Amino acid sequence: MALSRKAALGVIGSAAAAFVAVAPGTAHADDGLFGSLAMSVEANGDVLVGWGADYSNWSDSDARALRECGNSRCQVVVQFNNACGAIARNGDGKLGRAWGKTRAEAERLAVADAGPVNMPLINLGSSAPKAPKILASECTSNAR
Fold first, then answer.
1. Domain-located, residue 144
2. Is residue 54 part of a domain?
3. Which pTM was predicted?
4. Collapsing DSSP states into helix, strand and coil, what is residue 17?
5. Which SS3 state, helix, strand or coil, does residue 33 take?
6. CA atoms of 32 and 49, how far apart (whole Å)
7. What domain range includes position 64?
C-alpha cells in the first residue's frame, strides 16, 4: 500500500467514534463524482487513513477508502459529492471531520469540528498549545 494512501500519525487522546459527514444529495451516477475518507484509531494511538475519490457512487468510493485504510477496523467517516473532505486533529488529540466545496473549506471545517484546545489553568511558559493538524484531505477532480 502506498504511503500516500495510508497515514500512521501520533497518539490520539480519544478513540474515534463512528461519525460521518455527508455532502447533500443522492448517490447516483448522474450526480457527478463521489469521494470518501475512512479511518481507524489503532490501540497504540496511531491513526490510519484511506480515501477514494472520483467514483460514480459512494458505494465504490467507500470500498476504495476502506481498502486503502488497511484494516478491518476502518470506518468511513466523511463522504463528499463534487467536493472535498478532510480529517483533522486538534492539539488535545480530538478528531474532527468535514466536507466542503473546496479543500480549504473542508480543512477549515474539520479543524473547527475537532474543537478548541483546552488551555491549562496555569501556563508555565512551555505549555503552548499544539496547532491543529490536517490528517487527510481529498477532493473529487471536479471540486473547485
1. no
2. yes
3. 0.74
4. coil
5. coil
6. 24
7. 3-118+125-139
